[in-house]
Design a protein that fits this description.
Layout (H helix, E strand, L loop, with lengths): L3 E5 L4 H10 L3 E5 L10 H9 L6 E6 L4 H10 L4 E4 L5 H4 L6 E7 L5 H5 L7 E6 L25 E3 L8 H8 L3 E4 L4 E3 L2 E2 L1 H16 L4
Parallel strand pairs: 1-2, 1-8, 2-3, 3-4, 4-5, 5-6, 6-7, 7-8
Antiparallel strand pairs: 9-10
Helix pairs in contact: 1-7, 6-7
């Protein structure tokens, strides 16, 4: 199985093109004002309009109101939603698009129980837990906390870098990996060389994954 790659927190057309050219399967557009990776819906529309075929634009939200999501969708034609807050399944499924539900993994959290109510999700994203932060922490979590048999495609996130993502692919065998801060030279500032190194490391992990 080939592990798919999402480069999240894209804020300009140039780095969207870089990610696509280097082999990313998806880009993430963050619509969460406290984030240094927040993007205006108008600019996001320009980014999406220039993407080549088969690169999926994903809109990321954290505890949004319904009107906020609808405003983004009217402006920017994304293909998938990603919810990183405390949204319930009914809310996530109410916009007529496939969605990913994220959870911040920590000891004592029963992932099977947590995701039981999110059967409508296209997949589940596993991120690192840090109080007060919803992604982009640059911290990894203990991959041994991931139980077998989650039953949906898993997107692994949280502290992934060009240095550790090959190991993550070999050990976890996720459907996809999702990176943001791990390919930045400063908060919100993507780096072409780091994106290239990350994608190459994912491919290396695929090549050496246990069969």
């Amino acid at each position: 199985m080939r592990t798919r790659i999402k480069i999240c927190g894209i804020r300009d057309v140039h780095h969207a093109h870089v990610a696509a050219r280097l082999g990313a399967d998806a880009i993430g557009l963050v619509f969460y004002e406290p984030s240094p990776r927040n993007v205006d819906p108008g600019l996001a529309r320009e980014i999406v309009a220039t993407l080549p075929p088969f690169v999926t634009p994903v809109a990321l939200f954290v505890n949004p109101g319904g009107a906020e999501v609808e405003r983004v969708l009217k402006t920017c034609p994304v293909s998938m939603l990603q919810f990183h807050g405390d949204e319930d399944a009914a809310f996530c499924a109410s916009f007529g698009l496939p969605y990913l539900k994220a959870v911040r993994v920590r000891p004592g959290l029963d992932l099977l129980e947590y995701f039981a109510s999110f059967e409508s999700a296209a997949g589940w994203l596993l991120d690192a837990y840090r109080p007060g932060l919803y992604g982009g922490s640059g911290e990894a979590f203990d991959w041994d906390l991931i139980p077998a048999g989650l039953g949906k495609p898993i997107v692994l996130s949280g502290g992934l870098t060009p240095q550790n993502v090959a190991e993550a692919v070999r050990r976890v065998r996720p459907w996809a990996v999702d990176v943001s801060s791990g390919v930045e030279i400063a908060k919100g500032q993507k780096d072409e060389q780091l994106i290239a190194a990350f994608i190459a490391a994912v491919h290396a992990g695929n090549d050496h994954a246990d069969v």
